Amino acid sequence: MNKNQALMEKTIHDTVIRAVTEISGDVKELMKKTLAKETNATAKSMLTSMLDNLDIAKKEDKAVCQSPGYPTTWISFGDANMPVNVADAIGKAVGEATKKGYLRPSMVDPLTRVNSGNNTGKGVPNVEYEYHPGQKYVDFIISFKGCGAELGNVIQILTPAKLGKTWLV
């Protein structure tokens, strides 16, 4: 393995771990500002718990969420600066993060429902590529897409007839 490949793999690994153990500083600040303005006791309690959880996750080197979801990666690259096996490095990093306990091994094959045990497999993690001629760097973003709230169960067209007269209220 060459020096650039090793650096890329370490960077990807560290980014995967950071993606599940932290949130961005601006989001955390918005949560704190919202907490300071909140008047509802239940909402204040939930925001306080969320902020406490962030501090505990950082201190204990644990994931912020027990099941962060489906790993999705976006990679932007230019001429001759795209490492050949970046998808393999991403899969390896996700597998290692799962083995180390940062991720719950919850991803299953969509057809067979077989669990690989490490959140990798055909199409997992998802890797999206964007080629930009002349770009002199590789930009890498990983996001874990929550599988609960985003899981569509029923889709309907809600017409006025279905909604009744109260839909305008």
Task: Explain this structure.
- It is built from 5 helices and 3 strands, in the order αααβαββα.
- It is α+β, with helices and mostly antiparallel strands and 169 residues long.
- The chain has a domain of 102 residues: hypothetical protein PF0899 fold (2-Layer Sandwich), CATH 3.30.2320.
- α2 runs antiparallel to α3.
Topology readout:
Layout: H1 3-21, H2 25-37, H3 41-60, E1 70-77, H4 86-99, E2 126-131, E3 139-145, H5 160-163
Parallel strand pairs: 1-2
Antiparallel strand pairs: 1-3
Short description:
41% of the residues lie in helices and 12% in strands. It has five helices and three strands, in the order H-H-H-E-H-E-E-H.
Task: List the keywords.
globular; 12% strand; single chain; 3 strands; alpha+beta; three-stranded mixed beta sheet; hypothetical protein PF0899 fold; 5 helices; 169 residues
> Care to count the β-strands?
3
Q: What ranges have pLDDT less than 50 throughout 5 or more consecutive residues?
A: none
Under the CATH scheme, which class of the domain at 3-22 and 64-145?
A: Alpha Beta
How much of the sequence lies in strands comes to: 5-15%
As laid out across the biggest beta sheet, the strand order is: 2-1-3
Count up the helices: 5
Named CATH architecture of the domain at 3-22 and 64-145: 2-Layer Sandwich
Helix content: 40-55%
The average pLDDT score comes to 85
What is the N-to-C succession of helices and strands? HHHEHEEH
Largest sheet: 3 strands, mixed
What is Rg? 20 Å
Morphology call:
globular
**Which oligomerization state do the chains in this entry correspond to?**
single chain
Q: How many angstroms does the end-to-end distance come to?
A: 64 Å
Structural class: alpha+beta
The CATH topology assignment of the domain at 3-22 and 64-145 is hypothetical protein PF0899 fold
